[in-house]
Amino acid sequence: LQSNIHVVAPGGGSFGMISHAGEEVGYLIAGDIELFVGDKVYSLSAGDTFCFRSEIGHGYRNPGATEARILFVNTPPAF
Prior knowledge:
The protein has no helices and 7 strands. By secondary structure, the chain is an all-beta fold.
């Protein structure tokens, strides 16, 4: 397992879609994000969780006016 906390400034994001082997789960610690998984977009707020196969293209963006913090956990380690 690998875990990271991504700090995302307003208007910031992953700058594109990525895919890699494995699975990911996450917890939005603070703020709001749009999570892109395949052709779907999910609007998430602090306290929301998510899970998906990492082989599916995915990315995120902070559409809000405040910083967002996301706890990502994936297996196998990707970075």
